[in-house]
Design brief:
The chain is built from 5 helices and 3 strands. The chain is an alpha+beta fold. The longest helix is centred in the C-terminal third of the chain and has 17 residues, at 110-126.
């Protein structure tokens, strides 16, 4: 995951941006999910953009803080166990997912879901994950 964080600018093509990352538990992420999305259950990752528009261009002007990513370590561990891979891999997958949301990717529509999953797969291949 450290390599991803250090190389996210090249991989996701965002330059000179900062992202805050919080690792928490299901209880806290559930409260955030309920407050901001109206869904009263825990989720694995939430992203909160601090940009007014999607940041798909590295040349975009404005605040250097791209946004916040909150990851539930509890959910990540359960998913890692279910998928039979390491917690490190699962945290990396969730971080990639969060970064993509901050850069304008979404998955509410089937078409968007496919595009986002393809981008996630592309990034995971770079790290041989």
């Amino acid at each position: 995951m450290e390599i991803l964080i250090k190389n996210q600018q090249k991989i996701i093509k965002i330059n000179q941006r900062e992202v805050s990352i919080l690792f928490t538990d299901d209880k806290f992420i559930r409260s955030l999910n309920n407050k901001y999305r109206g869904i009263d259950k825990p989720t694995d990752v939430l992203s909160f953009s601090l940009q007014e528009e999607a940041v798909k261009s590295p040349e975009i002007e404005g605040d250097k803080l791209l946004g916040d990513i909150i990851i539930s370590a509890d959910s990540a561990q359960r998913q890692a166990d279910t998928l039979n891979h390491s917690i490190e891999k699962e945290l990396t997958v969730l971080l990639i997912h969060g970064l993509l949301h901050l850069t304008g990717y979404a998955h509410e529509k089937d078409k968007d879901y496919k595009i986002m999953r393809e981008k996630e797969s592309e990034i995971l291949k770079i790290f041989a994950l």
